Amino acid sequence: VSRGKTARFEVVAGERRLAALKLLAARGTIKADALIECRVVPIERATAVSLAENDMRENMHPADQFEAFATLVEEGLSEKEIAARFSVGLPVVRARLALSRVAPEVLALYRDDALTLEQVEAFTLTNDHDRQRGLLTNGRAPSAWEIRRQLTSEAVPSTDRRARYVGEKAYKAAGGAVRKDLFAAANQSGVYFEDAGLLERVALAKLDEEATPLRQTWAWVETRTEFDYSERSRFGSIPTIRMEPTPEQAEKIEQLRAAAQAATAARAALE
């Protein structure tokens, strides 16, 4: 930083080395005006250089990494540039940026070891800091599973039969928003359909379209996405009547029985 005619510099990497040099100078081991090689970097690269230096130190808290990546984005670096600079994949960069966006109170508790990384990851399901703070009680938060459950209580998981029937592409085409859990377990999709009402309408529209041919031949056709026991109980049932097979059907049945008996006998012989 230049102030008047005097140029001043900030140390972004090498604080410990600078402290050691000052100690050596104080002890007289080296001269106070000894020449020491250093690198001067533009201010826009300061954060990247500092992060690269401190990323290898054991005492760097993960939260510092999250915030440093966010600072790099603010300084103009793209996710791809950050990934290339630190030799990590794009998913890693996106995950750290998502973690940097949680409420400051959540990160502060994580720094104090009051929250686990898994809990912080669960908070990334929403960018609403007020909702995140609402889950904190006396500096504590519920389990990661419970955090996810509460933050997605109004959304529909992609495993829901309506979501599978409609599909993400058709839902988005109808104007629906999708939320993705970057930290979902390997056996989970981690995708949530935000607008349950829209999903229901799209599913019904698709059902109606598929029911159109049936309406040409059936007098009564209804479409619905739910048909629980209470609804089914309002309808009567038609008793089943056993029909005698035709000669062709009887012959086929005998052939199948003979084949089944032969297969059973062959298995018994092998055992």
Topology:
Elements: E1 2-3, E2 6-7, H1 15-27, H2 46-54, H3 62-74, H4 79-85, H5 90-100, H6 104-111, H7 117-123, H8 129-134, H9 144-151, E3 156-157, H10 161-166, H11 168-173, E4 178-180, E5 191-193, H12 196-215, H13 229-232, H14 247-270
Antiparallel strand pairs: 1-2, 3-5, 4-5
Structural features, described:
The protein has 271 residues and is mostly helical. The chain has helices spanning 15-27, 46-54, 62-74, 79-85, 90-100, 104-111, 117-123, 129-134, 144-151, 161-166, 168-173, 196-215, 229-232, 247-270; strands at 2-3, 6-7, 156-157, 178-180, 191-193. The strands form two sheets. A three-stranded antiparallel β-sheet has the order 3-5-4. Strands 1-2 form a two-stranded antiparallel ribbon. α7 (117-123) packs parallel to α9. The mean pLDDT is 85.
